[in-house]
């Protein structure tokens, strides 16, 4: 397999290094050998070359590699004159590759914290439109600024379908085992979200075996903390999904636990939910579990299911047995290397 790696900024290189070791060991155990190819990307790349991604990289991601593993990118000090960050790759990769589904599983591993109820749901975040379509085209002057949110029928239909198909493949919400998709929207106030909900309801009828559920965005934020065991799959707009996925991370041991996939019809890439955590860079304290589990999602996506499961099981056993403990601030007691070793020794 040829896997492209964007090691990214801040804690990115440490995390991608860790995930590469785990990926290689897990694949090797199944007779798969992996060739890793470095592709530069992010804030450092922007500072050095004037562009956040190398020439031709998008085309290579689509055609040359079997899979792409991405570290977190971006540095708050590397900005465009309009005030937005120059080193983030969200628009370049998600729109450039049309990876319309941002799949963000939130699962509490045994041993991480006592909650009294299981947490195991997936946020399906629309990844190519919504408020983020305004990226680069918002208006700003000294007195006012505006960005426009756009939802299209094609865009909403495909993300809602993706969510229902995913719910069919999953075993159901942890509390009652019901396969359920929750539409998270602000249709009580905004027309765009009323449009999103109407299309959700149209498509839900085509999946009578999956329960269609609704939450307004504010109530969803409350219930994801107060009653997380209710949720199975959630589907929502881009910006709302961005916020809820960090909120979910806080309930399962922090951002360093949470992986994600950016999935489209012809391309996909896998990365942690979090950013480059500049204050942790170089300290060896960041939790690489997010990046390691992103590697497992990558393997699952390319059909290397046994190797993917091997990684998930090793991660779970490392936490369940107490070999890895996360502090309240989300850093593991045994450090980045300790987590990597604990996982590899259990593959
Ligand atoms: P962040 O996600 O980097 O950090 C938020 C908090 O989580 C910090 O306290 C950080 O220390 C902690 N944290 C993050 N990852 C961790 C890990 N693996 N282990 C332990 N703790 C961890 O968010 P931020 O500080 O707002 O952003 C930093 C930079 O990252 C910005 O440039 C931002 O634009 C960028 N960013 C990139 C991505 C991405 O590449 N997908 C995602 C989010 C933010
Ligand atoms: C994420 C990040 C990105 C987003 C940023 C860095 C562009 O926060 O992947 O969640 O807002 O989508
Ligand atoms: Mn985010």
Number of extended strands: 12
Alpha-carbon Rg, integer: 19 Å
Number of helices: 11
Work out the count of structural domains.
2
**Ligands, ions, cofactors:** nicotinamide-adenine-dinucleotide, 3-isopropylmalic acid, manganese (II) ion
Any idea what the shape is? globular
Q: What is the helix fraction of residues, given as a range? A: 25-40%
Structural class: alpha/beta
CATH classification, class level of the largest domain: Alpha Beta
- Main β-sheet description: 7 strands, mixed
The end-to-end span amounts to 19 Å
CATH homologous group name of the largest domain? Isopropylmalate Dehydrogenase
Name its key features.
347 residues, alpha/beta, Isopropylmalate Dehydrogenase, seven-stranded mixed sheet, three-stranded parallel sheet, 11 helices, 12 strands, binds nicotinamide-adenine-dinucleotide, binds 3-isopropylmalic acid, binds manganese (II) ion
Question: TL;DR?
Answer:
The chain is an alpha/beta fold.
Task: Write up what this structure looks like.
- This is Isocitrate/isopropylmalate family dehydrogenase.
- Pfam families: Iso_dh.
- It comes from Saccharopolyspora oryzae.
- InterPro entries: ICDH/IPMDH (IPR050501), IsoPropMal-DH-like_dom (IPR024084).
- Keywords: Manganese, Metal-binding, NAD, Oxidoreductase.
- The chain has 347 residues and is α/β, with parallel strands linked by helices.
- It has two domains: 1-100 and 255-347, Isopropylmalate Dehydrogenase; 114-251, Isopropylmalate Dehydrogenase (3-Layer(aba) Sandwich), CATH 3.40.718.10.
- Helices cover 38% and strands 16% of the residues.
- It has eleven helices and twelve strands.
- The strands form three sheets. It has a seven-stranded mixed beta sheet with strand order 9-8-10-5-4-11-12, with helices on both faces. The chain has a three-stranded parallel beta sheet with strand order 2-1-3, covered by helices on one side. Strands 6-7 form a two-stranded antiparallel ribbon.
- Strand 1 (2-6), helix 1 and strand 2 form a beta-alpha-beta unit.
- Helix 9 packs antiparallel against helix 10 and helix 10 (305-320) packs across helix 11.
- The radius of gyration is 19 Å and the shape is globular.
- The protein starts with a strand and ends with a helix.
- The mean pLDDT is 97.
- Bound molecules: nicotinamide-adenine-dinucleotide, 3-isopropylmalic acid (IPM) and manganese (II) ion.
- Nicotinamide-adenine-dinucleotide binds next to loops.
